[in-house]
Predict the structure of LLM class flavin-dependent oxidoreductase.
Amino acid sequence: MKLSILDQSPISSNQTAQDALIESMKLAQAGESLGYTRYWIAEHHDLPGLACSAPEVMLSYIGAHTKKIRIGSGAVLLPHYKPYKVAEVYNMLATLFPNRIDIGIGRAPGGSAEVTNALSDNFLQQVYKMPNLVEELIHFFDHDFPKDHKYATVAAAPIPDTTPMPWILGTSKKSALLAAENGLSYAFGQFMSENDGAAIIEQYLNAFQPRKQGEVPEVLLTVTVICAETSEEAEEIALSNLIWALQKEKGEGQYIPSIQEAKEYELDGKEIEKLAKMKQNMIIGNPKECKNKLIELQAKYKVDEIMIVTITDSPRDRIESYKLIAAEVLS
């Protein structure tokens, strides 16, 4: 089993945004030393508690502080942007960090309606055009527009020796088929979905159409995992993330609460039910428990790679969680 990291660059109770971004770099370094395959950082806009609005900037910083781990976006929210500019940016990264760059592509707004309007015009219309945007982006990467196309002579310079590896990120049949029809790799976000991921991944595999001879479908599954030496400790650490999720629903949650703040948060009956439901979509436990559940997911979803997202109040607890999982699964 291959393991990778998805980082949302959370801002903890005692951190600034700068602190959080530096901790993201340290997480990538730790992931590299522990044997994780890739490190992706997410794009969010004006969402309290999350620091990264520009993955491309962070990837330059992280690439300069790592040597071999694959790095990428999870995801570039393509309806906000022109494909040509995205291709330029990721070709630039692939030129600086050869054979290391992934580009995850998503269609979500990444923030509120007001933020969406501030970022781009006609977002919904661009979402409807998502298949065309993806096709255009891939043509820019491969530099293979038909000769009569308006962009046939346009290059997304600099042209790297190795093209960034494109992925479609999603949680639905629509995203799976978009990936399959374009011959792209697919990342299913199980951590943020209640859909039948196994069925969606199967649809992707059955519909896959290779862009080039010899290409095969590639899938990864993204899950939330919090691991500690004991199950009790893991449950305690996970409480910060769970309470933060409830706070966000209320328009609160400016940062990830400390464990103590999370313990002191007063829950009503509905919130207790919500917490229980959220935990069903997470892996929380000691190293052996986490390994067993990861193996179960691997078998259920028929994937070779699992990408782990871990949000804790303490950066130390977060890196320790990844260390314990690596020691149990990758060693």
About this structure: The mean pLDDT is 97. Residues 228-300+320-331 form one domain. The two ends are 11 Å apart (CA to CA). The longest strand covers residues 219-227.
